[in-house]
Design a protein that fits this description.
By secondary structure, this protein is an alpha/beta fold. It folds into three domains: about 1-135 and about 285-365, Rossmann fold, CATH 3.40.50; about 140-225, Penicillin-binding protein 1b domain (Penicillin-binding protein 1b fold); about 375-455, no CATH class. The protein has helices at about 1-10, 15-25, 40-50, 60-75, 95-110, 155-165, 235-250, 260-270, 280-285, 305-325, 375-385, 400-410, 420-425, and strands at about 30, 55, 80, 115-120, 140-145, 165-170, 175-180, 185-190, 195-200, 205-210, 220, 225, 300, 345-350, 360-365, 390-395, 415-420, 435, 450-455. It has a seven-stranded parallel sheet. Strands 6-7-8-9-10-11 form a six-stranded mixed sheet, covered by helices on one side. The protein has a two-stranded antiparallel ribbon with strand order 5-12. β7 (about 175-180) and β8 form a beta hairpin. α1 (about 1-10) crosses α3 (about 40-50), α3 (about 40-50) crosses α4 (about 60-75) and α7 (about 235-250) packs antiparallel against α8 (about 260-270). The longest helix has 22 residues, at about 305-325.
Length: about 450
């Protein structure tokens, strides 16, 4: 992949060697780097050493932008998001099933120490979740050629899916739903964009196909598929028994929710309802936060830590105001910003160049080339940067424009490597792959890459 080439180039430069060496030795590092360079640095670091990483930013919009850029380098399977949920535990509206599914996938990856990049905002970490030992976020796994087993056995699969927050319908046409017709099971996973159809033969998975929700038309086969929960709790017998004791027997010292007796009766029947997560503090002895799921080998990357706490504080004010309006005790449902813990794992802190008072291990400067206006100006900038010792990269997603750039570079007698052609020949082509011009005399400088964007 292109990112592998970029990582090799970047980590020859002095500032990258400085903080990269500290990370390799298991130490924390603090780096000053401009906003535009941060996704590339994280992607290159992951490509160089795939490991569980959690990137923390201020604001959901910043998370969405960061995720898009990371996926441009690493692909969608590697980069996960842990989004905020707009539905509150006491809300009468149904939960955001897709957000729940995305959170579940991310939290499970964090817990398992999977080599994934999880990106989250500070405010998304304030909502409490069941403790790690609850197993709530574990998925159901289906693999072609293997037999259904455990909680996915055919005879108890509907019950298991219901416990995970899924709704049984005649047709699985919305996230968080499923249908069973003989040996054919349709499941619209909580974080999926389309359902899958699982066909069985004597409890063996014969095929798994993605289908169109409205028509059932097959749109592609897959070898395996994971189904993540549609709720951030599970009404297990132990959980409901604990809730019963807390609600009816012991004095928990907190005001009971309205309709608690009716809701408890529903929970005893295994029935989920809109306000089920209001009872999280009753169903579990010690609700926790997503960061409690971090595996020991995780690299935590807080970006502008001060802004993270500001983001969490603003969201906390919104939550407290909403809870006060309906007289809800937030203990066990949300933590305070002061309780936000980034864990004891290795840490790479990214700051802006203007941050004061921080002890830096490296400082990375980004220079923007002036290339707008014409191909001639772009070629001139590429030539001057390459002669100055930079590895120069031209990024262009449009194939026809790339071909035009290649002609312009050839006419200017600039030697270049076309990474799109190279990756296509190896079956690793990327629609965003770049044309990389460089003179043979070019060598890495302290700034190892200059990003050129054609406007």
């Amino acid at each position: 992949m292109l990112i592998d080439d970029l990582a090799r180039i970047l980590f020859q430069a002095k500032p990258f060697v400085q903080f990269g060496t500290k990370l390799e030795e298991g130490e924390d590092a603090t780096v000053a780097v401009p906003l535009s360079m941060r996704p590339l640095i994280i992607a290159a670091l992951f490509a160089r050493n795939p490991r569980p990483m959690v990137v923390l930013l201020a604001g959901e919009e910043a998370v969405e932008r960061f995720v898009r850029e990371l996926r441009g380098y690493l692909g969608g399977e590697t980069v996960l998001t842990l989004p905020i949920r707009d539905d509150l535990p006491w809300s009468e509206k149904p939960p955001q099933v897709r957000a729940v599914g995305q959170r579940a996938r991310a939290i499970y990856a964090m817990d398992q120490g999977a080599p994934k990049l999880v990106v989250a905002s500070a405010r998304a970490l304030l909502r409490c979740v069941p403790p790690a030992q609850s197993g709530v976020f574990a998925p159901l796994a289906f693999t072609v050629g293997e037999q259904l087993h455990g909680n996915a056995r055919y005879d108890i699969l509907p019950q298991t899916l219901t416990l995970m927050g899924y709704e049984r319908l005649d047709r699985a046409d919305e996230p968080g739903s499923f249908s069973v017709r003989g040996d054919v099971i349709d499941i619209f996973a909580s974080d999926a964009i389309s359902p899958v159809r699982i066909e069985l033969f004597d409890d063996n998975v014969e095929s798994i196909r993605r289908v169109v929700a409205a028509t059932g038309q097959s749109i592609g086969a897959v070898a395996e598929f994971e189904v993540y929960p549609a709720r951030e709790l599970a009404l297990t017998r132990d959980a409901v028994d604990l809730a019963t004791r807390k609600l009816l027997i012991s004095d928990s010292g907190r005001k009971l929710p309205k309709n608690a007796a009716y809701h408890l009766d529903l929970m005893k029947q295994g029935i989920l309802f809109a306000q089920s997560e209001l009872y999280l503090p009753y169903l579990y002895a010690q609700p926790t936060t997503p960061m409690a799921y971090l595996s020991p080998e995780t690299l935590v990357v807080p970006i502008e830590p001060r802004s993270l706490f500001d983001d969490a504080s603003r969201y906390n004010e919104e939550i407290e105001s909403a809870a006060k309006a309906v007289d809800i005790d937030l203990a066990g449902l949300f933590i305070k910003p002061a309780e936000l813990d980034f864990g004891n794992q290795q840490r790479l802190t990214l700051l802006s160049l203007v941050s004061s008072g921080a002890t830096l291990d490296a400082s990375i400067e980004v220079k923007h080339a002036q290339i707008a206006g014409s191909d001639e100006r772009l070629v001139a900038s590429a030539r001057s940067l390459t002669l100055a010792g930079f590895k120069t990269l031209l990024a262009e997603p449009d194939r026809r424009v790339r071909e035009s750039l290649k002609l312009a570079l050839s006419d200017a007698h600039l030697t270049f490597v076309d990474s799109t052609a190279r990756e296509a020949s190896t079956g690793d082509a990327d629609s965003r792959a770049l044309t990389r011009p460089q003179l043979h005399s070019g060598a890495p400088a302290d700034l190892a890459a200059s990003q050129l964007e054609q406007s």
